[in-house]
Amino acid sequence: MNALFPKLGWDIGTAYDLFVSLKAIHQPADFGLRASWAAGVRSRLPNELRDTLELATTIMRVPLPWIKSLPQPKNAAVVVAMMKQIPAEDRLAKHFCSPIINMRYREVLENTRPNKKYTQAELKIIREVYRNDQLAPSNLPELLHKAWSNRKAFGEAYCAGVEMFVSSFFIEEEARIIPSLQKGLAHAQARAGSLSVPVMLEELSLGVRMSEIKHSSHVVLAPSFWGAPFIFYDYLDKDSYIILFGARPDDMTLVPGDVVPETLIRGLKALADSTRLRILRYLADSPQTPTQLARSLRLRTPTVVHHLLALRSAGLVQVNISPQGERHYATRMEGFISTQDHLEKFVNGE
């Protein structure tokens, strides 16, 4: 296989959006989602299950390899049925652990016990794993300990929480998003005939460049309604990726029934902030990491990261992800044109 042309595969299923929507509902600010509406969805869940899902969405990534392994039709019903087949004490590991997880880190997690705090050596391993994850909460070790020290209880509540989330919200959402997923997959497959995988991915994600993709042997792409315009990715093995790309039409919103296009709201909100305008000006000069921007702006890095998330959500910055996971951001001029076009069309009733 030519290193510049990885083998391309495809997948589709609402199971991906089930877990992405769980993250969005519990972390609405990161997805440009209206906080009050997200709180209303969360309020449908009992307090205990709500707390477990909040913990799960904070410490866990979307379990892409596990979802990829599910049988078709890969919908919410299949997710719940397959989760119930996993012993409660094993559910956390099944969804948490990537196929290429750092083995020292996995040993730390599996050796977690209720009355045994992490040692300094163990904390060092955890910090090293999340070194480039600037969205990781400062109390991440405590959250990891809470889940991994009570794996059976966590697994039981986690499965029950997912099932309740499906019945109280996602079962109706599932029917709404299926046509968009099918259309998004068809569009991506059509583009694959004329573009390389990295270039196509950058187009589908509104500005994400993953330099290491061209050196992989296999890339599986799957559409996501709730993930747009972000991408979610994980390893299937050391040479293969699975990547979710955005597949939400511009005229559809995460909140059903909203009249104003979500892309327009995100663009205007992102630009209506002096710090974000300064960030765009810095990035127009040269690509920078969040840490470099923080020094220039004299702000904390986590603060800069949240501003960058808002700009990425609006398609106003592009990001280059290095093989080590480091992110370099640059201004994406196409985003300004898109926001202006959406505004003109909405005002003119088009």
Question: Would you give an account of this structure?
Answer:
Helix 1 (14-26) crosses helix 10 (151-191) and helix 12 packs antiparallel against helix 15. The chain has 16 helices and seven strands. It has 350 residues and is α/β, with parallel strands linked by helices. The model has no long low-confidence stretch (mean pLDDT 92). The strands form two sheets. Strands 1-3-5-4 form a four-stranded mixed β-sheet, sandwiched between helices. Strands 2-6-7 form a three-stranded mixed β-sheet. It folds into two domains: 7-246, no CATH class; 262-347, Winged helix-like DNA-binding domain superfamily/Winged helix DNA-binding domain (Arc Repressor Mutant, subunit A). The longest helix is centred in the middle third of the chain and has 41 residues, at 151-191.
List the keywords.
350 residues; alpha/beta; 2 domains; 3-stranded mixed beta sheet
Give me the strand/helix succession. EHHHHHHHHHHHEEEEHHHHEEH
- How many structural units, i.e. domains? 2
Cα-to-Cα separation, first versus last residue: 47 Å
Secondary structural class: alpha/beta
| Spatial order of strands in the largest sheet | 1-3-5-4
Summarize the structure.
With 350 residues, the chain is of the alpha/beta class. The chain has helices at residues 14-26, 35-42, 47-59, 64-68, 76-85, 91-96, 103-110, 120-129, 140-148, 151-191, 197-204, 262-271, 274-285, 290-297, 301-313, 333-347; strands at 7-10, 208-210, 218-224, 232-237, 240-246, 317-321, 327-331. The mean pLDDT is 92.
